[in-house]
Known about the structure:
Layout: E1 6-12, H1 16-26, E2 34-39, H2 46-51, E3 58-62, H3 69-83, E4 88-92, E5 96-97, H4 100-112, E6 116-125, H5 140-146, H6 151-154, H7 156-159, E7 179-182, E8 189-193, H8 194-199, H9 212-222, E9 226-237, H10 241-246, H11 250-269, H12 273-300
Parallel strand pairs: 1-2, 1-4, 2-3, 6-9
Antiparallel strand pairs: 4-8, 5-9, 6-8, 7-9
Amino acid sequence: MENIKTVCIVLNYNDAPTAIKLVRKIQKYKAFDKIIIVDNASTDDSREKLGMLAGTNTMFLRSKRNGGYGSGNNIGLKHAYEVLHAKYAVIANPDIDFCDEDVIYMSRIMDANSDLAVISPMMKEKGGFGTAPAWPLRDWFHELCAAGPLMRRLFKKLLNYPASYYKKTLYNNYDKKNLVYVDAVPGAFLMVRLDIINALGGYDEKMFLYGEENLLAYKIKNAGARSAVITDRFYIHNCSSSIKKLFSSLHNRQKLREISTLYYFKKYLRINPIEYACAVIFFKITALETLIGEKILKIKK
Length: 301
């Protein structure tokens, strides 16, 4: 049986050129024993284009339906664990850039720290508003603020770890200077320990897009496992370029965020009816905000 330690999962939906660019680059990486391309039931010619990349270290899987980010990645995670018997999986959005050496380093830290379920380098964004490299699991009110386009920018410092938090020293068996525990990390690029993630059931497939990180972090924390970021390693995220190709309207993207957040509130945080009603009102206001914002942008163009 082939000895497979680390795999990379690349999820695609109607954006083959971006996925192809990433896969061709990482096919040369020594860190990965296998690359799993998952096509999330694309409606264009992605299946044919991506299928051509399959070979010695690359396999192509296709979902029968587009169930969203979590559902698509679960296909790759399940195959990596149950079929390939891999130890770790890197989930990589097509619109990111990262180094081979960083993945090797991540796996070494995972080897030395058996309580880690998730690890990620710090994220640097191109063309965005500076998404935090990690954040704490918040109560419903602060999470609601984080779900609003304006609120999460105005109160960014109150919703995330302060910059000083990433300067803390955390002891671990591989390196003592560059690792800090966190609750949630961005879903664009992370390494997961497959036995823990499999035991937790992977991503919640009832959430289509946005907020999957919170659900996974909630499961991990409740199970007594850990997540961490490496403070002196970085990857580049091209500001959700793949998502914006599919959902060009800010209003539509915000609607997806609303659905996901309300689901998280109801199933995981179990907020009361009054809190839920306040959240619904808040999202009606943000919906109006995004519509006005889009009209202003159209006028300026």
